[in-house]
Amino acid sequence: MTETVESVLVRQWVTMPGGSMDARMGVGLAGRAGKELKSTLGTPRLAVLACTEDAPADQIELIRRSLADAGFSVERMALPSGTAALSLEAAAPVLAALDGLGATAGDGFVAVGDTGALSLASFVAKSWCNGISLMEYPLDLRAALEGSCTPLGFTVGTHPEMFAFPAATRYVYCDFELMEPSFESEEELFGRALMVCGAVADAEKAFGKLWDNIDAYMEGDAKIRATVIGDAFRSRGRVISSTSVIVRDSLGFGRTFLRALRPLVPSAVPSSSLFAEGMRFAARLAAGEGDFALDDVSAIDEMLDVFGLGYVEDAVFTPEEMAKALKAECFLRSNRFQMLTPKSFGRVRLTTLSDELLAEHAEAWVGARG
Fold first, then answer.
1. Domain boundaries, the chain
2. Which segments within 144-190 are labelled E, that is strand?
3. What is the pLDDT of residues 124-170, one digit of tens each?
4. CATH tag, 5-182
């Protein structure tokens, strides 16, 4: 029998700090919320269904019915999205709403949204009554891999991702009927960059498996898509569950570059392109120091290209401005000037950079885009 999209379902148990996350990928998952949440909580009482404004109404209704059919009293709540969700100020009204509903640790919290919304949901779920069971339905690939597994930290002042916290997700359901409209979006592209980053940080085997599946993924093969997302969850979970801080930090590969150059480039330049450029730049820094094989640099380049991740075409700043921005971003979070660079697949480490090495690579990077 030929497999159809309707039959696709991949389940992946993801190792997380202090526990595990049940990740499922496929279609028709909106109708499973109530059954799965009831199996965790036992006697159903309250389920808070928190959604962003752009969540598809028909799919939200399927989730609501599933919860109600399982015996839950369902209360709706609005979640902010994007950067508006990433602050302590955004958390306050959500916490107040849970208080008003009388939610307890024995109830369920079901969140549907983008990366910002799901990151906020993790913070709230982890904090409320020392932990309320959290189920998440991401609206795109970035939300799945980042919001559910490695939530974005909150902005403090004008500085993003300064207030960090762990994921609290018990279940994440990647329902392609929710995510399908975003398959060609910027959030999908950013999610593909996250998959590359996670594979490089995890192991050569993970990178090789992603490489083997990339063409089928790009062709839209639903089974492969589900499998690849499951593998990406597993890679990120393994890295963030390490007992070594150095290993856990390796998922920041390419992110210093992204944050540093975001203010320097036009707003039309996608963040996914900056993220990809950050990985390309870091790989070349490592190769320049003799720490990373040129063939491996080419492999990362090719994977990013096949995934459709772009480049910064024009540098509207000088090499000196680029170097200054990178150093400022590093010193914002550390007392040392270090960037994450790959030593090999599965070994991304903080590297101390000399001013001379940084100047050399910044000049080459800007010169190629001048």
1. 5-182, 185-370
2. 154-156, 159-163, 169-175
3. 999 999 999 999 999 999 999 999 999 999 999 999 999 999 999 99
4. 3.40.50.1970
